[in-house]
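Tokens help. One example:
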Amino acid sequence: MEITEDFLKETPFAVTVCDNDGIIVYMNDKASATWEARGGASLIGKSLYDCHGERATAMIKNMLATGSTNAYTILKNGQKKLIYQSPWHKEGKVAGLVELSIVIPEKMPHFVRG
């Protein structure tokens, strides 16, 4: 089985991918629906920087420059979400960022494994 971006198309969490210039190159169905009010899938080909303020833009540029990861939780529209932003690589170099936005339960078990 070959895994392609089609594998992500209907996942139950939002996947947004940008290139090294901050241009959105992929949004799965959930990401498109999440950002429908701002244009949904029509955001593909547009800059992430147009959707973010100065602080977030600086963070995105830093992640692209350093290959660092950013992870946090938010409460939005009554849903708790994990936001995970991390670089993707091509030929060993940062080629852009992947953002996962995953709805998580308000109370979620936490396990410590050895």
Notes: Strands lie at 14-19, 24-27, 70-76, 79-90, 93-104. The first helix runs from residue 29 to 34. The helical segments are 29-34, 54-66.
